[in-house]
Amino acid sequence: MITKVYESPAALARASAARMLQVIADKPNALCCLAAGFTQNETYGQFVNLVKERQTDVSRIRLMGLDEWGGLNGTDPGSCRAYLDARIIRPLGLKEEQILFFPDGKQAAQAQCLQADALLDAQGPIDLMVLGIGMNGHLGFNEPGTEPWTRTHQVVLSDTSRQVGQKYFDQEMPLQTGLTLGLKDLLAARTILLQAVGQHKAGIVAALLRSSPDTSLPASFLHDTDCLFMMDEAARG
Ligand code: GLP
């Protein structure tokens, strides 16, 4: 893992967008898996602007959803799919056939897990993985305790994720479970950008920086990869 500190969230977003664009320039049909957290708000805005400015062809990129809240899908405000629809899929005009898989919290989990793993086996590894870090060190919904070889699975959310997750919704939401790609496929991605923005992330960022790979902090497995850990000065603490 390589660590880089940016002077502001805007600087981090610009650098992230440029790296995302580079992956697509190098491989126009790149398999992209993008987190749907508030950390990425500015990055995705910059990325869409850059794609339009440079007239980059995104008609062949392939998109996979990282995670979804149990019981929700893209028709629900606050869902991961709705987030990516608004910030990536619609602004870039991606077609439905470019979305290889997106977890659907309203469908039976087991069949979806098998489908996602089969797709990753056939079309992976992921070329571009954009990740945020949860307040408890989770990646996607790979919660503390998750083994690094785990593949797509249904998760019983931790108390932290249930509470913190309320921020994505206008009203109180009974969050219990999630569906997520597993650590094995996240860690195998060719380009991994892990982002942390804001003072509220300083504690978990410090914990990650002093950690060794261990299931108690799922993001710590990124130490053994070429991940670029991008943080702003506030998150560095
Ligand atoms: C969420 C999602 C993750 C996200 C992380 C950080 O709950 N499951 O995919 O990256 O937690 O979210 P945020 O960027 O909003 O802090």
Structural overview:
The protein is an alpha/beta fold. It contains eight helices and ten strands. It has a seven-stranded parallel sheet with strand order 1-10-9-6-2-3-5, sandwiched between helices. Strand 2, helix 2 and strand 3 form a beta-alpha-beta unit. Helix 1 crosses helix 2 and helix 2 packs parallel to helix 3. The radius of gyration is 16 Å and the shape is globular. It starts with a strand and ends with a helix.
Q: Percent of residues in beta strands?
A: 15-25%
Largest sheet: 7 strands, parallel
Structural class: alpha/beta
Share of helix among residues? 25-40%
Mean pLDDT: 98
Radius of gyration over all CA atoms, rounded: 16 Å
Number of strands: 10
Strand order of the largest sheet: 1-10-9-6-2-3-5
Low-confidence stretches: none
Q: Helix count?
A: 8
Query: Which outline best applies?
Result: globular
Q: Say which molecules are bound, naming each kind only once.
A: 2-amino-2-deoxy-6-O-phosphono-alpha-D-glucopyranose
Which sequence of SSEs, written as H and E, runs from N to C? EHEHEEHEHEEHEHEHEH
- State the end-to-end distance: 19 Å
Summarize the structure.
The protein is an alpha/beta fold and 237 residues long. It has helices at 9-26, 41-54, 80-92, 109-123, 159-164, 183-187, 202-209, 233-236; strands at 2-6, 31-34, 62-65, 67-69, 99-101, 128-132, 153-156, 177-180, 191-196, 228-232.
